[in-house]
Amino acid sequence: MIEILGWVGTVLVLIGYWANSNLRHRLAMTTWIAGDVIWITYDVFIENWSHMVLSLVIIGINIYGIYKIIANGRLSR
User: Where are the alpha helices (DSSP H) in 1-77?
Assistant: First the structure.
């Protein structure tokens, strides 16, 4: 069960990369955040603290990116 969490997080983050490369910013940001939340959960279970911190930082960067995109009026799909 725990390993499935890691794979689901990976798939969501990969969808986020794909969406970002296709200029679908809203989908990219939401799937990245969802994938990182799942990775954080996974990391807590396996006690992988360095990756958990990385995921938290990436979520923060994505939230900042959403703010900047909205502030510039360029949030697409």
Answer: 2-21, 25-46, 49-71
